[in-house]
Amino acid sequence: MPRVLIIDDQKDVRAMIAIVLRVNHFEVVEAESGAAGLKAFAESACDAAIVDIFLGDASGADVIAALRERAPALPVVAVSGMTTLDFIDQSPSLADVVCLQKPFRPSDLLQALRNAQAATSALPAAV
Q1: What is the average per-residue pLDDT within 25-52?
Q2: pLDDT digits over 64-101, tens only?
Q3: Which residues are paired to 98 by β-bridges?
Q4: How many Å apart are CA 89 and CA 16, to the nearest integer?
Q5: CA dist 71 → 2, 65, 79, 106 (Å)
Q6: pTM for this structure?
Q7: Which of 40, 93, 101, 120 is most buried (CB neighbours < 10 A)?
Q8: Average pLDDT, stretch 43-54?
């Protein structure tokens, strides 16, 4: 069963994402902050991550970059209520991150995860 780390400071959003994933046979690890998410990832590797870009304690982009340092081919979906996530393209550590705008439908979330997996499977292996 694929394990997905959800990092979002909004409890309701985290819960909704977790329900969608569990119904679709994913194992879920939830974190309410960037620091908690990085700690959870260090304690137990995940197959993918869903990260809110605007966290209370950290920049989601920085959290994604830290996750990618530890696991360069980690499939990542960045979520945000902002209308544009153009800044994702500005950092090499955020390459192949799939962006998803809130609010989103469960089917959009699952498709974004599939797209993130496909994008990272094309990445060259870390040397």
Answers
A1: 96
A2: 999 999 999 999 999 988 755 555 666 666 778 898 98
A3: 77
A4: 27
A5: 16, 10, 19, 26
A6: 0.90
A7: 120
A8: 94
pLDDT (0 to 100) of residue 102 = 87
- Paired with 7 in beta bridges are 31, 51
Distance, CA of 78 to CA of 50 (rounded, Å)? 6
DSSP character string of 43-57: HS--SEEEEESB-SS
Cis peptide before 72 (omega within 30 of 0): no
Q: What is the mean pLDDT of the chain?
A: 88
**C-alpha to C-alpha distance for 80 and 97, rounded to whole angstroms:** 13
Instruction: Specify whether the CB–CB gap between 28 and 6 falls below 8 A.
Output: yes
Sheet-wide strand order for 98-101: 27-31, 3-7, 48-52, 76-80, 98-101
Q: Are 24 and 48 in contact (CB under 8 A)?
A: no
Model confidence at 127, pLDDT cuts 50, 70, 90, reads very low
Which among 43, 79, 47, 48 is positioned nearest to 61, based on CA atoms?
79
